[in-house]
Structure formats: C-alpha cells, structure tokens
Design a protein that fits this description.
The complex is a heterodimer of chains A (about 325) and B (about 375). Chain A is mainly alpha-helical and about 325 residues long. Chain A has a domain at about 45-225. Chain A has twelve helices and no strands. The longest helix of chain A is centred in the middle third of the chain and has 35 residues, at about 160-195. By secondary structure, chain B is of the alpha/beta class. Chain B has two domains: about 55-275, P-loop containing nucleotide triphosphate hydrolases (Rossmann fold); about 280-355, Alpha-Beta Plaits (2-Layer Sandwich). Helices cover about 30% and strands about 25% of the residues of chain B. In chain B, helix 3 packs across helix 4 (about 165-175) and helix 4 packs across helix 5 (about 195-205). The chains are: A mainly alpha (about 325), B alpha/beta (about 375). At the A-B interface, helix 1 and helix 6 of A face helix 1, strand 6, helix 3, helix 4 and helix 5 of B.
Amino acid sequence: MTLTWGAGSLGPGAGTLPTAHSHVPRESHELTITHSHLPRESHQMNAFVIAKLTFREALRRKALYGAVALTVAFLALYAWGTGYIVRELDEGLPQGLARLASQSGVDVRLLAIGELLLAGLYAVSNIAGLLAIFMAAGTISQEVEQGTLQSIISKPVSRVDVVLGKWLGGAAMLATYVAITGVLAAGIVYWRAGYLPTQLPLGLLLLMLKTTLLYSLTMVGSATVPAITTGIVMLIVYVVANVTGMIEQVGVAIGSETMVRIGVIASLLIPSDALWKMGASLVQPPNPLPALGIQMSLGPFGVVNPPSVWMGVYGLTYTLLALGLAALIFSRRDL
Amino acid sequence: MARAPPAVPAAPPPDIGHTLIMATLQTPPPTAGPAPGVEGPPPAPHRAPQKPPGGGRPPLAVETHGLRKEYGRKVAVANLSLSVPAEEVFGFLGPNGAGKSTTVKMLVGLVRPTAGGGSLLGRPLGDVGARRRLGFLPEQFRFHEWLRAEEFLNFHASLYGVPPRERGRRIADVLQLVGLEARAQDTLRTFSKGMLQRIGIAQAVIADPQLVILDEPTSALDPIGRRDVRDLIRGLRERGIAVFLNSHLLSEVEMVCDRVAIIDRGMVIHQGRLAELITGTLEAELRLDALPASLVAALEARWPIRGTAGPASSAPGADGAGLWTLRLALQDDADLPQIADLAIHHGARLHALIPHRTTLEDLFVQSVENHDR
C-alpha cells in the first residue's frame, strides 16, 4: 500500500486519526520510492544542471523580454536607416566625403558603410554589456537573499558548481544574444550595401569575450554584496571604462601621451572597452588616414590604435580570474 | 492535557541479504511504466541502510563535537555536541535564538563552523559527498517559483545525480506522497504556502535519503497537513531513514520523536531518549469536598504528597472552587482506582481525579528556565 497525502487516500489507515498511542500499520507508510540506488558520482555534471537552469530562467522569466523587444526595434530602425543612408551615398557623395575622396583617392563609400556597421555593433556591444551587468548582479545575491539556494547547496553540489553553472548559463545566454544581434546587424549592412567583413566571426567572438568579462566581474560583486550595490558600482565602472577608452582615442589623435596612458591603465583595470576596440578593428574597413599622416579613427566608432593580441589573452585571463575569485568568495560565504 | 509517551519501538534491524536481493528484483526496467504503487502492488522492500565497510553498527546519522559559530562578536552556537543515531527520529528543540537554525545550517553545509566539527552520515561536515544521501527542507522554503512542480523536482533529482530514466518515476512517487500529483504541471508561483511546504518535502525525499533534516516542516500546514507530515515522518523511520526534526511544536515532537535534544544559548542542555526524559513523573490531582486527616495519612503512607490547597485558595467560580486539591506523585496509573477507593473509604466526596504526566513542554520549560537562571 502506498501513503498518499490528502483525504481518502491514506491506505488502510485512512479515517483513523493517529493518536499518540496508535502504532499505525506499517504498510500504510511504505513509500513508493522502491529500490535503493547509489547516485553516480556526477559531481562535474552539477555545474551543467545549474547552467541549464540559469539559461532557462533567463528565457522563462519575463525580465529579458524588454531587452529583446527593444533589440528588435533597434534592428528594424537600423535596417531602415542603413537603407536610406546607402541610397543617399549612391545618389551622390556628400560634400565632405567628396573632397576627401578627390584628395586621397580612397573608397569613401566603403568607409562610410564600415562606420555604419561599427555603429550597429557598438550598440550591440553596449546593450550586451549592460545586460551582462544586470543579469550577473543578482544571479547569486538574489538567490541568497530569497533563500532559493538553501535547498540547492544542501545537496551534493559544491559552491564552485553553483558559481560555474551560473557563469556558464549566463555567458551562454549573452553569447547567444551577441551572436544573433551581431549577425543580424552585419546581415543588414550586407543586404543594404553589400559590405561583409571577413573577420566578422572573430570580431563577434571578441564582443562575446567582452560581455563574458563583464559578467564574470559582476559575479564577484554578486557573490559578495546585494544586487543593487553591485549593479550601481558596475554601471559606473563600465561607463568610466568607455569614457577612458575615448580619451585614449583622442590622445592618439592629438598626440597626448598622458591621455593615452590614462586609457591604457584603465583598460588594464577593466578591459571591456579594449576588447570592443579589438573586435571593432577587425570589422572596420582598412583605415587610409594614418597613411595620410592623420592619426584619426574612422568616425566615433572606429579604432585608430587597436590593442595588440595580448589584450585578448589578458581579457581571457582576467575573465577566468574573476570567475575564480567569485567562486572563492562564494565558497567562504555563510548563507 | 495528559498525553501518553509515544512508546515507539526501534525499527527492527533489516535483513540485509534479503533486502538486497529484493532490491535487485525490484529494479524497474529502463522503460518507465506507471509509477509502482499507484495501483497497489506489493509493498516496497525495506531499503538496506548503508553500513560502514567491515559491518558493525550503522554509523550515527549526525555527530558533532564542540560545534561553534560566531558572527562577528555574537556567538550563535557556543559549544554544541550532538549524537543523532541512524534510523531514528530526532527532535531538536530550543527557544528562539538558541542557535537551532544556525546549527541546522552548519549540518547541511550552508554555514561554516567557527570551531569544532562533526560528521554527517559518516563523512565530515561540509563534505559534498556527505550530502548525497541527505534530504533537507529549509525553514524558509523558498524555491524557484517560475518552475513547474515537475520541472522543480526534476531539477532537484538531477542535482542528486538521479539518472534521467529514473526521475520520472520518482517524481510521480513523491508527488503522490505529498498529495500534489494533480498540480505537477502548475508553476510553483500558483502554489499556496502549504503546497510549497509539501513540494519542499517532496524534493527532500526524492533521492532515497538516509537522513532527512526538516526545519519547521509544518509551519504552513493545516491540522490535516500536520498529521500527514507526522505519518510521513513515521513512514520514513520505518524505512530506516533518520529524521532530524527542528520544530517549535512540542506536542508534535512528542508524538513522533524517539530522541530529543534541547538547546539553549548555543549549548545542549538535555539530550536523550524521549521516553526516558519524560516518564517517571506521573502525578494525580484530587479534588475533594473535605480532607480528613485520616485520608491524608492513608494517602501519604503510599504516595508522596506534592501539594495541598484549601477551598479558599481558588477563586470563586474557578475550576475546583470550594474544594480541596491534593497532588500525589504516582509510579503507575494503575494506582488511580485505589486512590478513589481510599477517598470514599475515609468519607470524602471525590469530585475529580486527574492524572498528570510530565509533558515535553514541562521538560522544555523547566530545563530552559533552569539553564537561564
């Protein structure tokens, strides 16, 4: 017989209120979990179980719907705008570009279209960066506050599994976002103007690294302090990184070593903007200005001094160290 | 209210060899059919408790020595040494702020002890592997409310490493166990507090645990639900599963526990078998219209008198107003008819004869008050 919960289904003991004296017949309590199994040693699998849950949570909860809706709106606008601009370019170059074309002999149409693509990817990069911060800020701290982690940590799950799982799930979600929106933005430019940079995949990979880096760094905060604190701090850090990145660009253009140094130090502290620059430099069309003696980028989104490949290595190391730090902090934390 | 001690015999030692054979025979085929037990097939075999290598007695389910936790300068748990035998129901009691929750959190790995240590199912505290056979219902049973009940249980089963082909059957079993089979496809967001507590119990027992720690498991349940949880706890014990019950409801603890520990200010002040802790103190209260000296002498010759109160001592209109009250210490409630006979024999009219047994509540209040003094 099985013990079930609710009226009329208690088996033979049903209807008899158990008193302090009554020794209830044994069959009525036999659980229906039958045989004994010893669960396999599936320690490493737990990170994937939690990653899957994190990924699914991002999809299932309506938190991301707004971001998706706005992204769709942005892409629609982008397609519409790109179409117009390209038509305008094809009907006749604007005055400034025409003068540059006649003086330097470079393909200014290509430069303008490259700048358009960069603008689209810049938007993608920033939306993804902010999403990374907002998704990671609460991923641990909110579950600690709500207590949902209590029934997870008390299972054969290590704290490292929890952090790793949440990282994998979040990073996968963000990478998916960057891949889809990045490819769509590039696709729109290709559809409207026929420009497709061959290095696009590597460029998008670097954008993914940037968002993952932000996600990992924010997780350090999430393992330590409440979501709101982490969110605010990371937002400021992110904006400062973007601004110092611009200062560095300007510094290169006007030849100010101090400005360049500020940018370099900032990109070592938080390499998010440096990784964007690496990615952008891979998808922008060849820049003819340095050859003309002008150390300027192609418009505000272009890059005049792309970081070396070591910045990529540094970004990757940084990301993994941040992840390790988050795991270490969380492992020592009382819940 | 007088209450008899639970007087529960310890579960008989299972026949290991037989159980193992049964377990092998009962292993279901890979194709998961309907959950066994739904239509009433033969009872499940008694699960073989995990024995330490080399045989011998089953290890203690929980053992701690000198467990201590400080939060800054505040000492939550001072020096806690507990022994929770396997296959028993253990009641963990104490006033608010005594350190119960912190202790439970240290046991399940949520909080790191400042000092001291212990073992859980034979493995050191904090060891991830020790939690493989541990079921835990947290006091604040908050879960991922966006999950459907079935998904929630599937997730928790997978955390235990239950193979996918086995999960469906187990989910059906535990849903039935807690009476939520009709809600399998509903998200937890739509659940009442009582239902959340039930699904919390379901996740705690889904992976065939050896020890189940329930932190206030009936706080959100109605009387029927509470009775069901009591039955469930007894059912777990009968299968050789140790239950560690943290509850404020002393009457409930009294009904199901074999053994209790009372803690106060982070230390154990009483620990032992419930039957031993609260038996041996039986009192009879007599209410009489008169108290002749001969009666007092006759009673005193056989039972120590614990107290006497005259008719003036009780307020008019109160229970037993205008009557003499006498309290006797008894060994056995078989003495009660003799007391009645004596009263009548000595010419007193007996208005009431009430046996009082020391309850867990008496013990609890007494020990905590003594300790605080």
